[in-house]
Amino acid sequence: MSSSSSPKRIRLGILTPSSNTALEPLTYELITVLNAHLPSTQITAHFSRFSVTKISLTPDGLAQFDLGPILAAAQLLADAQVDIIGWSGTSAGWLDFSQDLTLCAEIEKATGIKATTSILALNKALELWDVKKLGLVTPYLDDVQAKIVENYKGIGVEIGEKMERHLRVVKNTDIADIGEKTLDGMVGDVVGSGVDAVTTFCTNLIAAQRVRFWEEKYKVPVFDTVTTVVWDMLRECGVDAKGTKGWGMIFDKN
């Protein structure tokens, strides 16, 4: 009598902005699909919050991303013995990519657990797909958007005037109310400028579930920042999720 081996369990620890209502449901939906695609692996997601209520370049807006509260939230995830910690947020887009590199190093130092982020993962995907012209769709203010464009220019990724659209929303809870019709229009606008890929760049946008529709319509990869962090967490855990269907071309490569 033979017994089947138990699936390999992977616990993903995910850092979440306190006011975010989109990323957890979307992450669960994605993980349900991943578990169906990977029957020998059982993936679970576990969340820890720290205070973020608005997106702006004001001193109090920037202070929300100080290391102390984030590391405290990461330590709570470490209590659950997660396999990896991911920051499902886009703050390094306007702060500087080095901010996330520092954060990951400090998380590993404090917890002994490897870490990644939505933006570090996005940048890995852009490199894998050799993206030189990027369509940027966000809900952010003009000055936040300008910082993101500037930071991508610094790593050789062009986001021209016609390659970006943003909605000037400050309050984070309002971002999750942005509907698919609005996002459809924004993605269509930036694709028309001849980009190599598009990113829906905010983990409180309810956008990841729409990526397949946009990719089939426009024939370019769309990288959503809720999905990018999960994709990279699995890669760092040695899980090959290549071939996962319904959540974008990002799963065409590993």
Can you describe what's shown?
This protein is α/β, with parallel strands linked by helices and 254 residues long. It has one domain (8-252): Rossmann fold (3-Layer(aba) Sandwich). Helices cover 44% and strands 16% of the residues. The chain is built from 11 helices and 8 strands. The chain has helices at 23-37, 59-63, 67-79, 92-95, 97-111, 118-128, 142-153, 172-175, 180-191, 211-218, 225-236; strands at residues 8-17, 41-50, 84-87, 115-117, 134-137, 164-165, 197-200, 222-224. A 4-stranded parallel beta sheet has the order 2-1-3-4, with helices on both faces. A 4-stranded parallel beta sheet has the order 6-5-7-8, sandwiched between helices. Strand 7, helix 10 (211-218) and strand 8 form a beta-alpha-beta unit. The longest helix has 15 residues, at 23-37. It is globular, with a radius of gyration of 17 Å. It starts with 7 loop residues before the first strand and ends in an 18-residue tail after the last helix.
